[in-house]
Design a protein that fits this description.
single chain; 122 residues; mainly alpha
Length: 122
């Protein structure tokens, strides 16, 4: 079963850290792992905006399927390498989503992220 971009984007913000009793500490990730998480979130957010018809998001290749697969594989890789559980990984996704939303940096990081996507073969 494949998830659409909407549920993936909704998953990112489904359980806000502020709603939890104690926010988990940020994971200690390598630069490569942090970039995988950041690009995964950027793909999910962009795929959602593409589904909504956002003209800026339409400038990128369709990310509904390949971006989602990158998200899933990269998240599994980071979880395995860093020893994170699902809740910790979700917290990392949420931190990145909020940062990307607040900073407006998706356009700045997308060229590098698209190169990672291409290199992944997805």
């Amino acid at each position: 079963m494949k998830l659409s971009a909407l549920p993936v984007a909704a998953l990112l913000l489904a359980a806000p850290l502020s709603a939890q009793d104690v926010a988990p500490e940020p994971a200690r990730l390598t630069l490569e792992q942090r970039m995988l998480v950041r690009c995964s979130v950027a793909f999910a957010m962009t795929a959602y905006e593409q589904d909504q018809g956002d003209p800026l998001a339409q400038a990128y290749p369709p990310l509904g399927e390949s971006g989602q697969e990158f998200f899933v594989r990269s998240s599994a890789q980071v979880m395995d390498e860093a020893g994170l559980d699902f809740e910790q990984m979700a917290a990392e996704h949420e931190r990145e989503a909020l940062d990307l939303r607040d900073s407006g940096q998706i356009g700045e990081i997308m060229p590098v992220c698209l190169q990672l996507l291409e290199q992944s073969g997805l």
